[in-house]
Design goal:
Layout (H helix, E strand, L loop, with lengths): L8 H25 L1 H14 L13 H38 L1
Helix pairs in contact: 1-3
Length: about 100
């Protein structure tokens, strides 16, 4: 029988929140250090997807970067927490069905 251990929603939220925050921290650092090269890369990625949009990378503003990292951490925490709560609930219901 395949047993699913109950996962901790807070730990999952932290992991996902930290992951998203780090990705956006790296993005912010790149915007501060190499905005022109980043714009070229961004345009290339959009072109690969057959998308043409007039997006431009704005000059680096510390407070924007700060809030970007904070907000993405909070959103990531909430999404990770919700995902694990739903997964635990679904697995618990599946477990009850198997017992019948």
């Amino acid at each position: 029988m395949n047993k699913h251990p109950k996962l901790n929603p807070n730990k999952a939220g932290l992991v996902f929140g930290i992951f998203l925050a780090v990705v956006h921290l790296i993005w912010s650092i790149l915007v501060a250090l190499i905005p022109n090269q980043l714009q070229t890369f961004f345009d290339w990625v959009l072109k690969l997807h057959s998308i043409s949009m007039p997006f431009t990378i704005k000059p680096f503003v510390f407070m924007n970067a700060f809030w970007l990292v904070i907000v993405t951490f909070v959103v990531g925490f909430i999404l990770g927490w919700l995902l694990v709560v739903i997964l635990n609930c679904v697995c618990q219901k599946c477990k009850k069905k198997r017992r019948r």
